[in-house]
Write a structure and sequence with these properties.
Helix content: 25-40%
Order of helices and strands: HHHEHEHEHEHEEEHEE
Number of strands: 9
Low-confidence stretches: none
Distance between the termini: 31 Å
Largest sheet: 7 strands, mixed
CATH topology: Rossmann fold
Number of helices: 8
Mean pLDDT: 93
Structural class: alpha/beta
Number of domains: 1
CATH architecture: 3-Layer(aba) Sandwich
Length: 230
């Protein structure tokens, strides 16, 4: 089974469910702090131009424009999610672009971006190639910001090692989700992903849940490495 293709297909199959889950606030971690965390990380760099890779239904683009006054472009491989984003934000900039198209190098933008963000959108095994492919689209002082599942969020007894996992969305009842394969990485593996992509880690944050002190996410801010990656 080609898990990369299955992962991409799952986003399209679940597009309606994702839009509903985001807009109806059905994802507890968002209210617990992950939305605020990614917006705070972006605002630190006062971007004029933002690219949201894997933008989904576009909430982060809309919020960034509203609160930060920047220009925002959202791209996603799901045509339905992009349609949902455009419906909610007719004046916004959204485009159907797959990760494979980015890695193939055939994608161009009008100008480079000060911040390129992956907000829960980097679940493929070949993350280093995708991150390397977006480096040319960064401005001279631009940064890449990644928010993802915290590696220590595994249930007790699960193996703490890199590998494909499966999300069946059982927490979302009665919505007929399509299972999604995703690639789990340890903390040290995320460090290696950044280095392999030719990036340097500027900041690592672990937003915490106030109610139990457990990490909500892993938040990485990266810049282009001055030299070639090892």
């Amino acid at each position: 089974m080609d898990r990369t293709k299955a992962l991409a297909s799952s986003w399209e199959a679940n597009a309606g469910n994702w839009t509903r889950a985001v807009r109806e606030r059905l994802i507890p971690s968002r209210d617990a702090g992950t939305d605020d965390a990614i917006l705070a990380a972006i605002s630190t760099h006062s971007p004029r131009r933002l690219l949201d890779v894997g933008c989904g239904e576009g909430w982060l683009c809309r919020q960034s424009v509203q609160t930060l006054g920047c220009e925002a472009t959202g791209i996603d491989g799901s045509s339905q999610l992009i349609a949902d984003a455009q419906c909610a934000d007719p004046n916004g900039r959204y485009e159907v672009i797959t990760y494979q198209e980015l890695m193939d190098g055939g994608v161009s933008f009008e100008a480079p971006f000060d911040v390129i963000v992956f907000n829960y959108a980097l679940f493929d095994e070949d993350a280093p190639s995708l991150l390397a492919a977006i480096r040319p689209h960064l401005s001279a002082m631009g940064v890449v910001i990644i928010q993802t599942l915290h590696p220590w969020s595994l249930e007790q007894g699960q193996d703490y090692r890199d590998g494909w996992r499966n999300e069946d969305f059982s927490a979302f009842e009665n919505q007929n989700w399509t299972a999604m394969p995703w690639y789990f990485r340890t903390l040290s593996s995320w460090h290696q992903v950044v280095r392999t992509a030719g990036l340097a880690l500027l900041k690592l944050e672990e937003p915490m849940a106030s109610f139990n002190g457990q990490p909500l996410s892993l938040l990485l801010t990266c810049e282009c490495h001055e030299g070639d990656p090892d």
